[in-house]
Structures are given as structure tokens and as C-alpha cells.
Amino acid sequence: MSKVNKRKHVMNESARDDYELPKENQSVVKILKSKGNNLHEVTTPNGEIYLVSMPTKFRKIIWVKRGDFVLVEPILEGDKVRAEIVKIMNKDSIKFYKENNIWPKEFNDDKKIENYVDSDIFVNTNRNHLIVPAKASDHTSSSSESDSDS
Fold it and tell me: How many other CB atoms sit within 10 Å of the CB of residue 13?
């Protein structure tokens, strides 16, 4: 599969919400910070902190940042890295989890959920927007007229 097709499929998969309930071994965690090499430090609702890995299908396609919520599945062979990201939560999936009483109560008072915007996941914040200043030609012509009048 080419990179373009792979990107298209991953973006479509993450954009649509399949409204699937988590399995027994999956849990919702909050991203605390990125540790590099596609590793992220997360916290559980109990306050336990550990590392999770970003699967290769998400790498360089979807970015997560501090405060985002993800669904993780534990991996057996890891000592430091104890889980792998299965799904990146968006506003609709958080709402669905809350309606089904699956959302952890410890994450309810988080301000991030109230301000959660779906487009935040896919926006590249490294690009500055170009702001074009207004032309000063009108301003300079009026000042030259006032100089000639004196």
C-alpha cells in the first residue's frame, strides 16, 4: 500500500467514530507529555503514570498533544512501555462513553473536555499564518499634501 493510500485510510478511520465500547483489557488514559520515539507518558484515572507507544499506522499521520485522551491496550512484553494506543478519542467518542457510563469519573472535571475541538487533532501548529499589513500609500499621500500647504 502506498503512503498516500495508507494516510487516506488512517485519516478516514480516525475521522469517523465507530462508537464501539472498549474491550475488557482496554482503558482510557490522558496524555501527560511526549517522550520521543513515538512514546507518550500517560496517567490513568487512579493516578498511575507509565509510557505508551504510538502504533506505526498512526505515526507521522496523527499527532497527539498534552491533555488529549486515548484508548490503550496493555502489552505483555514491556517493562517501561506498558500499553499501545488503540484509538485517539475525539469529542463524539467522549460523549458516547459518558452516555454509556464508561468514561472515568476522575476525568470529568477536566477543562480540556469542555474545550475539546475535533480539528485540534489534525491541525499543524508549526505553521505561522501570513498576515498582510494594509498599504500605507493613502497615508503617505496625505502627509505630502500637508507639507506643501505650509
Answer: 14
